Amino acid sequence: MSCARLVAGGLCVVLVAACAGLQGGPGPEVKQALAPSGKLRVALFTGSVAHVVKDPASGETRGVGHDLGKALAARLGVPFEPVLYSALGPMFDGAKSGAWDVAFVGVSPERSRFLDFTGKHMEIDFAYLVPSGSRISTIGDVDRAGVRVAVLLSGSPDVFLTRTLKNATLVRTTNFPDALKLMKSGEAEVLAGVKPNLYGISAKSPGLRVLEGRPGAEEQAMAMPKGRGPDALAYARNFIEDAKAAGLVKAAIDRAGLRGAVVASPE
Questions:
Q1: pLDDT tens by residue, 118-132
Q2: pTM as predicted
Q3: If 0-12 CB within 10 Å is exposed, 13-18 middle and 19+ buried, where does residue 264 land?
């Protein structure tokens, strides 16, 4: 599939130029290791705009994970096959069962037990969402006794806040809509997540606002299930470095409209 299909509007020239810098397919052994089914199966979490989102008006699909997966498939010369998940737990279970080949997710020691990671391609700020009239006005107000923070189970904000919050209580859900309902119903005072998601929610909900600042950030990288081999991992690492240098990651961030996300530094 042509890299030009990744693009829309004014970003077309940028992405086409970026794809031109990503030419060069792998040898047959590496290709078989990366796409053993003959397709590149890319795991995408539908609860994050960093992974994948469909424009309700045009029907166009975009997202950094989506765009990078599509570009890698084009470089390998195989069809791109999105594997969509509505919850993170089943997505990571899919890595262990061989349901997908690559994903673009937050790096953590726990995930490194069953995934191999490339260098980072993107950093995304964490943030807090609160009702406009909330007594919580700064990120420093969150970590207090009695404050309940809704968070997505197994997501990077959950991993980070489990380690860093000392007084607030985390209330975990398996999907983002349920986490939002907890805050709107008063069962939680705060919703924690990544900034692009929370800005998207606040833009559609005048009664909600994103607190200034950032409690931390997620480092995202391309991941593949362990056992694909050192040559396949080396090829994937080179792809990510090429994608950053050629401007493909930056163009994908811009195309998805991600606020609070930046391209990671070269490794």
A1: 999 999 999 999 999
A2: 0.80
A3: middle
